[in-house]
C-alpha cells in the first residue's frame, strides 16, 4: 500500500466526517469522503410533509454552549429560531400532574450535577472513585441515593432516557456522570432556553450538513457507496467499498461504534479496540411525530413540553416550525418502553403513543392527522440513537483508547468526543480532533 | 430468491454450526456449511508443540452433566482422561495462602447457587425480581450482600472471571444467575471431579469438531470462505461469501453475537435483533500456557490448580496431557487484569504472568521453556472468549428473542443456549434446536 491515492479517506459523512473532511481540505489535503447513504448528515434527517410541514426525524437542537456547531451555523448564515416555550409544561410525577419539577426531584438532579463536576470529561476513568462508579449501574446508584423513590424514578427516566436514550440499568454511574459532564451539566443538558434544546434550525438540522458538503471540492464526496473494509499498513491504507478500493495515506473512521465494528479490517483491529467497540451499544430512542391542524394545546395554556415518570413516553415537545402549515407534537420513548413499542405492530405502536398523548394533552391529541416514526435502531447505517454509551465497566477498561489512532487509522464520531459527547457539537469536536491527529501524523514527504 | 440451491446454508463451523449441519443432513436436507477459517471447531483450537506436547488454546473441558457433547464424544469413540487432581490446590485468599476455599467464601457461593435456582434458564426474564436483578451489576449485588469483603472479592473473581470471563462490573446479577442456572449450579460449573472441568479430550477438543466434519457429505463444508452477508426473503435466502452467493431455503447463523452483527443483512436485521446483538459483548479471557520440563509443582505437593483474589491471574490448572513429553501450566486472566495485560507488550505480558506463577508455585515457575498466548479477542473470526454475555438491562429487554427465527434466518451458537450456555454443550444444544426449527419451518413442497 502506498500513498499514491488520496491523502486522507474519511468514512462516514455525518457531522464528524464532514468536519474532518472540511478541515483536512482546508489544510491542503487531497481528501475523499465516503458515505453509505445517498445523503449526508448521519443522525440528522430532515423531511417535509407534502404541505411543507418540516420534521426533524433525528437530532435537531443546538444549545448556546455548543460553540463548535454554533460556529458552523453562523459561518453558513443559516437561520435559527428558539424552541417555543409559551405556556406550561406538563410534569407527570407520581400520578400528579404538575407544571414544574418538584423540589425533591430538583435536589436529586442537583446532586447528580454536583457529582458530574468531579468527573473530568477528558479523563473520566481518572476521576476519584471512577472504578467504583463504573461498577454500579445508574439504577443501583439511584436506588441507594436516599432520595424519595418517586424522585429516583422521575430523574432516572429524565437522565438515562432523555439524555442517554436508554434505561438507568444500561449505563454505569460513571458513564452517566461523564455524559453530564461532557455536556456541561444537568441544567445545560435538560434546558430549553439557555440549554441544549434552545435553538432549532430553519430548514432542519440536515441542512447544516448539506452546506458543509457543498463546500467540499468536486468529486470529494461519494454518496451511496458503503465502505466494506479498510486495509491498513505502515505505508498507507486502502478503503474498500462495494464499488472500488481507494488508497490513501490515512483514514478517518467517522462512524458510530457499532458500524465501525462492522467494517472488515485487514489486519484485524486490535483486541482492545474490538473490546471497546463491543461494549458501546447505541441508545434505543424512538422519536415519533404527531401532526395536527393546529397547536391546540396552546389554547389550554400548555407548551407541548412534558416529562413523565410513567407511561410509554418520557418526554414530548412542541416541534412546530414557525410559519408551518400544521402543528407537530414530537414524543420520545426510551429503554424498556422503546423496546416494548418495537415489539408491537405499527398500529399498536401508534395506538399506545396517541393514547398517552391524549392523557397528557387531552382528547384531540389522540387523533393526529399524521403519525410519523423513524426508527434509527432499524436503520442499517445508524443502528441506534441518540448515541452509544459504554456498558458498566467499559469506560474505565476501554475508554482511554477511543481517540487513540491505530497506526494510520483515526477515529471520529460524537462517541469519541470530550465535550458535547452525543451531540452535533461533539461530532464536530471529534472531526476537528481527528483532522489535527492526521495533520500531526503526516510525514514531511507526504505534506507536499 | 428461490429455493433452487441448498435446503439450508449454515454459517460458522463451530460446534453449533457443525451440529446443525449434521442434524439437518441426517434429516435428509441438502446442506452447505460455510466457515471463514481454514479449520472447524470455532473456539476450540488444539495445537501441538514440535515435541508433541498438546495445547488446547481455547475450550477444552467437558463435564458429566454436559450430556449432548458427551454423547458426541462417545459416538466417535474419542478417548478422554480426567483432569489430574493430585496434590493440593493453592487458594490465595486475602494474602493468605490456603489449600481450600474458606468457609466464608463457600457461604457466599452457596447463596449465589441458591439464587440461581430461582432463575429458570428457559425464561430468565420471567424470574421473580428479574427486572431488579437485571438493573444491578453483579459487583453491586456483591457489595450489598453483607458477606465479608474478602469473600466478595474472591467470589467475584471466581464467578465473573472464571465462569463469565469478565469482571463483576460487566454483567447484571440476573445475567450471572442465568449463566449459573444454565450450567447446572455453582458446584457443577466450578468443579473438576464431577464438574464442568472433569474431562479432557485425548487429541484435544478441536478433534471432536473434526470428527463431526468428517461425517458431512463431500462438498458440504467449505473452509476459508468468510460469509459477508445474507439476503433473505419470503421464498428463501442467499448467503453471500467473498467467493460466491449460495441460494437456499433457510439459513442458520451459528456465530458469536458480535460476528453475527457484522454480517451485512439485506433487508437489514430488525431493530430488536440489532439491539440484542449490540448488547452482548464477549468475555475478555486471556489464557496462557507455560511449558516446563516436568510438573515440578507435584514435588511440592501441589496440583497446579490455583485460584486467587488478587494478582493478574484468577486461576491456573495443570494442563499436562497424559504421557506428554513436557508439563503445561495454564493460567487465566479476566476483566480488568486481561485488559491491562493487553495494554502491555508481549514481553511485559510474559513477565507479569510468569512473575505471578512464581509467586504461586515457586521460583521454577518463573522460567518456562515456552510461553504461549492465543488472544481470542484479537481473532477476527471470534472476538472474545469464553462467550458473550448481556450487559445489564439487556437480558430482560432483549433476551427473549435470541432463538426466535427472523423469517428464514435461524440463530444458533452457545450464546443462544438454554442449558450449558457458554460451553460446548450449549453450542450443541443450540445447533440441535436450530435444526429442529428449520425442519419445522420447511414447507411440504421443499421437504422433498
UniProtKB/TrEMBL annotation, chains A, B:
Annotated positions binding FAD: 35-36, 227, 415
Swiss-Prot/TrEMBL cofactor(s): FAD
Superkingdom of origin organism: Bacteria
Ranges for domain Amine oxidase: 15-439
InterPro entries: Amino_oxidase, FAD/NAD-bd_sf, Flavin_amine_oxidase, Flavin_MAO
An example Gene Ontology molecular-function term: oxidoreductase activity
Protein family per UniProt: Belongs to the flavin monoamine oxidase family.
PANTHER family registered for this protein in UniProt: AMINE OXIDASE, AMINE OXIDASE [FLAVIN-CONTAINING] B
Name this protein carries in UniProt: Monoamine oxidase
Species the sequence originates in: Streptomyces cacaoi
Lineage: Bacteria, Bacillati, Actinomycetota, Actinomycetes, Kitasatosporales
Amino acid at each position: 500500500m502506498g500513498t499514491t491515492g488520496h491523502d486522507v479517506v474519511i468514512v462516514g459523512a455525518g457531522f464528524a466526517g464532514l468536519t474532518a473532511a472540511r478541515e483536512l481540505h482546508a489544510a491542503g489535503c487531497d481528501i475523499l469522503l465516503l458515505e453509505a447513504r445517498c445523503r449526508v448528515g448521519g443522525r440528522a434527517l430532515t423531511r417535509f410533509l407534502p404541505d411543507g410541514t418540516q420534521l426533524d426525524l433525528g437530532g435537531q437542537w443546538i444549545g448556546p454552549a455548543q460553540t463548535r456547531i454554533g460556529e458552523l451555523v453562523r459561518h453558513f448564515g443559516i437561520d435559527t429560531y428558539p424552541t417555543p416555550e409559551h405556556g406550561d409544561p406538563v410534569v407527570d410525577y407520581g400520578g400528579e400532574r404538575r407544571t414544574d419539577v418538584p423540589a425533591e426531584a430538583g435536589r436529586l438532579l442537583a446532586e447528580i450535577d454536583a457529582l458530574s463536576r468531579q468527573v473530568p470529561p477528558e479523563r473520566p476513568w481518572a476521576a476519584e472513585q471512577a472504578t467504583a462508579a463504573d461498577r454500579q449501574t445508574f439504577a443501583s446508584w439511584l436506588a441507594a441515593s436516599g432520595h424519595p423513590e418517586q424522585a429516583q424514578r422521575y430523574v432516572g427516566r429524565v437522565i438515562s432516557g432523555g439524555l442517554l436514550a436508554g434505561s438507568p440499568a444500561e449505563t454505569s454511574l460513571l458513564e452517566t456522570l461523564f455524559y453530564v459532564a461532557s455536556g456541561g451539566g444537568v441544567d445545560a443538558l435538560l434546558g430549553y432556553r439557555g440549554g441544549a434544546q434552545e435553538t432549532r434550525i430553519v430548514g432542519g438540522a440536515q441542512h447544516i450538513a448539506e452546506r458543509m458538503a457543498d463546500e467540499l471540492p468536486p468529486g470529494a464526496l461519494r454518496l451511496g457507496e458503503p465502505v466494506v473494509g479498510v486495509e491498513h499498513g505502515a505505508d498507507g491504507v486502502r478503503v474498500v467499498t462495494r464499488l472500488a478500493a481507494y488508497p490513501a495515506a490515512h483514514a478517518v473512521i467517522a462512524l458510530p461504534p457499532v458500524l465501525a465494528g462492522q467494517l472488515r479490517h485487514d489486519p484485524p483491529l486490535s483486541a482492545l479496540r474490538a473490546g471497546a467497540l463491543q461494549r458501546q451499544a447505541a441508545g434505543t430512542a424512538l422519536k415519533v411525530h404527531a401532526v395536527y391542524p393546529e397547536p391546540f394545546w396552546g389554547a389550554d395554556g400548555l407548551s407541548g413540553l412534558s416529562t413523565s415518570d410513567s407511561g410509554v413516553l418520557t418526554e414530548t415537545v412542541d416541534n412546530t416550525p414557525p410559519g408551518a402549515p400544521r402543528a407537530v407534537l414530537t414524543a420520545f420513548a426510551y429503554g424498556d418502553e422503546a423496546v416494548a413499542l418495537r415489539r408491537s405492530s405499527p398500529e399498536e405502536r401508534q395506538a399506545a403513543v396517541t393514547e398517552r398523548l391524549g392523557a397528557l394533552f387531552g382528547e384531540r391529541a389522540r387523533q393526529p392527522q399524521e403519525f410519523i416514526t423513524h426508527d434509527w435502531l432499524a436503520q442499517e447505517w445508524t443502528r441506534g440513537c441518540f448515541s452509544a454509551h459504554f456498558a458498566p465497566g467499559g469506560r474505565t477498561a476501554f475508554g482511554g483508547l477511543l481517540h487513540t489512532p491505530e497506526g494510520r487509522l483515526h477515529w471520529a464520531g460524537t462517541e469519541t468526543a470530550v465535550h458535547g459527547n452525543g451531540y452535533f457539537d461533539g461530532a464536530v469536536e471529534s472531526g476537528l480532533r481527528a483532522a489535527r491527529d492526521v495533520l500531526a501524523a503526516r510525514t514531511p514527504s507526504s505534506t507536499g
